[in-house]
Amino acid sequence: MLFQWGLRKKQPANSATTKEQEQSGQAKDVPNGSLDTIVNVNIDIVQRTTGNSSDIVIRRFTIGEENPIHAAIVFTDGLVDEKIIYNFLLESLMTVNIPSSFSPKDLFLFIEQKLAAVGGVKHVQQWFDVFSSLLSGQTIIFIDGIPTALSASTKGGEYRSIEEPSTQLAIRGPREGFTESLRTNTAMIRRRIKNPNLWLETMKIGEVTQTDVGIMYIKGIANDEIVEEVKKRLRSIHIDSVFESGYIEQLIEDQTFTLFPTTYHTERPDVVAANLVEGRVAVIVDGTPFVLLAPAVFIQFFQAVEDYYARFDIATALRFLRVLIFFISLVAPAVYISATTFHQEMIPTPLVIAIAAQREAVPFPAFVEALIMEVTFEILREAGVRLPRAVGQAVSIVGALVIGQSAVEAGIVSSAMVIIVSITAIASFATPSFAIAISARLIRFLLMFLAAMFGFYGVIIGLLLMTIHLCSLRSFGVPYMSPLAPFIPANAGDTIFRVPTWAFKERPRLINQANIIRQGENQRPQPPDETNNE
Amino acid sequence: MKRKAFFLIVLFMSMTVLSGCWSRKELTDLAFVIAVGLDKTKDGRYMATFQVVNPGNVAGATQRGGGSGGVPITLYKATGDNLVEASRKGSQKISRLIYYAHTNLIVIGEEMAKEGIGPLFDAMERNPQFRTTAIVVIARHRTAEEMLKILTPIDKLPANQMIKTLQFTEKTWGQNISVHVGEVINDLTSEGKEPVISGFRLVGGVQEGERQTNVQESEPDARLSADDLAILKDGKLVGWISGKAARGVLWGLDKIEQTVITIDWKHKQEAIAYKVVRAKTSVSADMKKGKPVVSVHIGAEGDIGEALVPLDFSDPQEIFALEKKIQKEIRQEIIKAIERAQQEKSDIFGFGEALHRSDPQEWKKIKADWNDTYFPQLEVKVSVDASIRRTGLRNKPYMFGR
């Protein structure tokens, strides 16, 4: 209510700025309307529109000897595979001999059907389409006398090669991670799901950047309503730029004012493939290795890829551990604060004396002590992420030695507090999803405040509010806490437990309703003699 | 309207925040009372002695500045007409808030115990900070204050030393019993059972014991050790019960876990040691011809721990004879204990409660006179079933081998 009130006031100002942006970014510079018939006019327009940018390569030439027809090809240097252009376009276009009777229209068709030895050739008539294909790596062929250009697919250029993902590592499992190229990414998913029902729809988002965004889903498994909802939300985005899937994520998520992520992002193609098969929708954004998956549920952030590759007993044990880890990273400092300032009777006598002895010399209340250490740690972590690698090591030395040891020796913090902060830090690093670890980071501070004011009572109130909030969240209409709340017994096997693979009978019910059966009957392996008897 | 709602919300939110830190108390503001001693002054007032932990000096708690010079505990005394008054008055002398949540030991001076411990526990039970699991002991021949002054080695906190001594000796030797406040209160209020509390003795002088030098010697001059069991009647200390009879009390209360029974064999005294590893006592009471009859059955299992006479343990006959002897020994222990209790007219075994359970109607008639009339003349049948499970790693003793 508070937030809405604030929003409503700001809204008019917001919409005004977007309108201005639209005018200045798009409509003014790119000429409207269709192409001219004369090549030189068209080239002029291209040059004018791109401001003679040096990476726009324009090559004029003529086709035919007796009755030469003027033509030109235009491409963006660096975005194209030059070999394709030279070998399969330029060479054939410049050396071809055509009968003098050829009209430009005949030539146009002849080029399209015989000469352009590349995969995709499209007709473009609108300037808007010309520029969008030119700037995404297509080669445009203008021919005199025809108000249509050919756009040949010559995408190429330098990309980062496929490397091991740097965020979600696994000991067992595929090593490749997504790259910045949309096409490479979709190919990696296709390689895993060789099924014609894996559909890919692309659209351009970003009025200025014209970023390619792909929506991938398996027709027949994904819930059509959710696919439609994703598309609807994507279509309604009007923003000047998209540089990372985070832009999209923030514009399509169900609720902004929540500390929890309601879409899942991953760098691993195997995760995306597995989620597509479960019926989720993937949103792939060109220029980032992070692919969005929707809808996301809470428990998904505790599922590491290896859970499904390792045997179920180990996977279940690790799941338990991860939930515990999340809980520790959430409440450890809060519990320390409440136990040492409100509930001293709950600590065993030898321990309370040991902690009291350490705190003898500490001048601050436990809460301030915890806050100092937590903030220091957050500073260290932030520094560690941003600093160049060479300096990073120095930071960790300073952090470990100075903060850890000297702070205790100087009597600013107690060593028990250092232990608490360390275990919290390690726990937050051990959370499989960074998105949820970072939510825990924020909630931890809230819980610390509550603990400092009300002790365990406050911590419990905080956790209750968090649970209520979690239960109220939706991700593309799917309850965030499902299949725990609402409880769906058929899907409960993949929550804090991970049942054996043969027991995964159904896909998540709330995510897809059409096609829930996942595997055949009797998938449980049997010893050979028993099967022989049957 | 919206502005109003906004302010209302802010006001409501600050309401919760403003009440914050209500019962906040920092660790450095607390005086952890680890043991409380209770004595009577000459003018009949209560004197409470607080053994307060000095956290910085408890060795092992911290390396930094720990253990050097200082003593791990400090005593504070306060007198008052009742315990709460004495406790609050103590704040005049202690720089921190007196905090009872970690009080694990109550020491009652012998004089105080003789006058009656009945009213002592009300304040402890009523105070939410206080734990009713705090162990109660009685200072033999001494005041509680003197007992609490003694510094102890190994377990630096004297209270811990006493509690752990009591618990482990109960477990392995079985002549002492650790009772906590809750049990004492139960026994005090029960009509068919009287409390029995372990005594603690101070060996050596208080002067030596209260100094740091006491713990710097390999054999401290002043030491605390668990002693006889105190028999109470109507909340007053009436007598002590010691040695094998004290173990008999534990047999009767089904508190024996492990112990050692030594028996004579063929004219050699204390020749064989029998280690009890499991024991179970069941008590049943009945009215027979208008008289209460109690039967106690003890089942014990154990090993041979030591044999100083020639004996062939591979011979079942020998084992049976040995078992008989052991049974007789255990039986004597408990009969001694019962006789002692009957002498003091105090039903420390809870036979009255057993009767209450089996025959509530009759119990109602006799409960008023139970301790003074019926219990001293009670007929108690004791049967013991002891069995030797193992003989250790040898059959024949090596001294008499071949």
Tell me what you see in this structure.
The complex is a heterodimer of chains A (534) and B (402). Chain A is of the alpha+beta class. In chain A, 49% of the residues lie in helices and 12% in strands. Among the domains of chain A are: 115 residues, no CATH class; 89 residues, no CATH class; 166 residues, no CATH class. Chain B contains 13 helices and 14 strands. The N and C termini of chain B lie far apart (107 Å). Classes of the chains: A alpha+beta (534), B alpha/beta (402).
The residue ranges of chain A in which pLDDT falls below 50 over 5 or more consecutive positions are 1-28
Helix content of chain A: 40-55%
> Helix tally of chain A?
18
Cα-atom Rg of chain A, whole angstroms?
Answer: 30 Å
Going by helix content, strand content and strand pairing, the class of chain A is: alpha+beta
Radius of gyration of chain B: 26 Å
Order of helices and strands of chain B: HEEEHEEHHEHHEHEHEEHEEEHHHHE
Query: Which structural class best describes the helix and strand composition of chain B?
Result: alpha/beta
Q: Unreliable runs of chain B, pLDDT <50, ≥5 residues?
A: 61-67
Largest sheet of chain B: 10 strands, mixed
Shape of chain A: elongated
Biggest sheet character of chain A: 5 strands, antiparallel
Structural domain tally of chain B: 2
- Shape descriptor of chain B reads globular
- What is the overall pLDDT average of chain B? 89
Count of individual helical segments of chain B: 13
Q: Tell me the helix content of chain B.
A: 25-40%
Terminal residue distance of chain B: 107 Å
